[in-house]
Amino acid sequence: MELEIRNRMRPKLDQAIKRFDMSFSVQLDQAIKSPLTQRSGLVLLYDMSNSSYKNFDFDLSQKILELLKKLYNLSTAIEQIEWEPKRKEEYELRHNTNNIGTFRYELRHNTNSIGTFRYELRHNTDSIGTFRYELRHNTNSIGTFRYELRHNTNSRGIFRYELRHNTNSIGIFRYELRHNTNSIGTWKG
What we know:
Elements: H1 2-33, H2 35-40, E1 45-47, E2 52-54, H3 61-79, E3 90-96, E4 103-111, E5 117-124, E6 131-139, E7 145-152, E8 159-167, E9 173-180, E10 187-188
Antiparallel strand pairs: 1-2, 3-4, 4-5, 5-6, 6-7, 7-8, 8-9, 9-10
């Protein structure tokens, strides 16, 4: 029965993840490339190649440290999970605490045939399926490490805090922290 449910739910979950991938990447990339964003210092960029801060607001330093600590703790916990050897290719852990079939906790680990490791952790605290915490860790086939942490505090799915850490194939380290304080998705430092 459990296997039947997993097989039935997997396509829906995969579709949801793909939609999240596309929308999140597009929105964040647009925000970073926006001239307004660059001019007003809404996005924090730290470039290790020249050890300089761009658009840096020191008032955010404590929040950055707190988010990095949460991100490290969550990713470390996922790394230490003893995955079942017989289910090496894909793992899913879902926990449902309400009566309408909304899963409040989801953990997935996928290792595909080209060596891509992927971790996704989501935590939902409301009754309509809005996930307020999302952590993703992706290592793709070209050695790019990527961490994404999002925290949503409203009821419409607008994420007010976003932290990303990217190490690309040419060794550039990048940290981005965004904080949204309004209801229409405008990001502020």
